[in-house]
Specification:
This protein has 345 residues and is of the alpha/beta class. The chain is built from 11 helices and 11 strands. The strands form 2 sheets. The protein has a 9-stranded mixed sheet, with helices on both faces. A two-stranded antiparallel sheet has the order 1-2.
């Protein structure tokens, strides 16, 4: 029997392992834990990360800012030093770039000079797939693998699953999700798949946050994912704020729920708040978010000291890593100065 196992091992066909040989691997993982893609919000730090070598299903109802949140996470990952690729098959490439630039500057429409400097800063950190039509599952898998081979992609964002022509057969959904999972594992990368949830019938409608069973399609989509995140917007609160009415800010504009996390023990939800000017989600009702420093130099944040202290005391500051400090006011074009303090509470 042992001789037969040795022969199989020599042929590369042995799929068995002795438990005693796994001790060193376990110790190594303890001492060198696998790092995922950290969230832009400190509320999730230490609780949840997008897993590397896994597929994260990121969903919600149509119009609940799924793409905004996914792109914010992707930009944060790029600022942390991860190589990111985004395949936004619904947004045009210029629209996606402008959204990312606005999130970087904490502005709705950054000045032309900022756009140019942001593009130069982003080169090599984040790659955008210039394709806006339906793709076959085979082409999508090839695209993801090529992004790893050519760019060293750590995080690939597929937005959204509807733009992959899987077909009506449920087995095709299962096969595609399995291929994504195998690709994530074999190529040691994180894959985020943005997908729609079906709105429940009845008077409550989309007031109820989606669950794991809410994703359009078969259960294979959720079952194959290593992690599931669901974003839900309080549309009634949003409408009142848009109408200038007073709202209760003791609870957030959004809830982000972690419904599945195969590699981290925490599941739960957090509240997030809509930024005043940019398409960003923030930790607290102060609606503060730290812009990216395109110079990567050590410059003091422009926010008022009192605002930073107040927010930090609640443990709600949003920050990029220390080596990605905010843009100083001396670098902002005069036309932008009026709007650049948008992330102050």
């Amino acid at each position: 029997m042992i001789d037969e196992l040795a022969m199989l091992e020599q042929l590369g066909l042995n799929k068995f392992v002795e438990p005693s040989s796994l001790v060193d691997a376990v110790i190594d993982e303890r001492e060198n834990p696998r790092k995922g893609i950290a969230a832009p919000w400190s509320k999730l730090h230490g609780l949840f990360e997008i897993p590397t070598q896994g597929v994260t299903l990121f969903g919600g109802y149509s119009g609940h800012q799924k793409s905004t949140c996914a792109n914010q996470w992707a930009l944060h990952a790029a600022a942390q030093g991860h190589v990111v690729t985004i395949a936004s098959l619904e947004l045009t490439t210029p629209t996606l770039f402008e959204m990312l630039a606005g999130q970087s500057a904490c502005l709705d429409k950054p000045h032309e000079d900022y756009l140019r400097r942001f593009g130069e800063w982003l080169d090599g950190k984040l790659h955008i797939v210039d394709h806006h039509d339906v793709m076959t599952p085979e082409d999508m898998i090839s695209l993801i693998r090529d992004s790893k081979r050519f760019f060293g992609t750590d995080l690939f964002v597929l937005d959204c699953l509807f733009q992959v022509d899987i077909g009506p057969e449920l087995d095709n959904e299962k096969r595609f999700m399995q291929q994504l999972a195998v690709t994530a594992r074999d190529y040691e990368m994180a894959i985020m798949v943005v997908h729609h949830a079906r709105k429940p019938q009845g008077p409550t409608g989309e007031k109820i946050p989606p669950g794991k069973e809410s994703f359009i399609g078969s259960s294979h989509i959720a079952n194959s994912a290593s992690a599931i995140c669901v974003l839900h917007e309080d549309k009634e609160k949003s409408a009142r704020r848009n109408n200038g009415e007073e709202v209760d800010d003791d609870f957030g504009d959004f809830t982000l729920s972690i419904l599945k996390s195969r590699f981290m023990p925490w599941e739960g939800r957090i509240s997030l708040f809509k930024h005043e000017r940019a398409r960003l989600l923030c930790n607290s009702r102060h609606r503060m978010y730290q812009p990216v420093d395109l110079t990567m130099e050590d410059k003091k944040c422009q926010y008022e000291e009192s605002s930073i202290t107040e927010s930090a005391s609640e443990g709600t500051t949003n920050t990029f890593p220390m080596n990605a400090t905010p843009v100083s006011t001396s670098e902002i074009a005069p036309e932008m100065m009026m709007n650049f303090g948008a992330s102050r509470s």
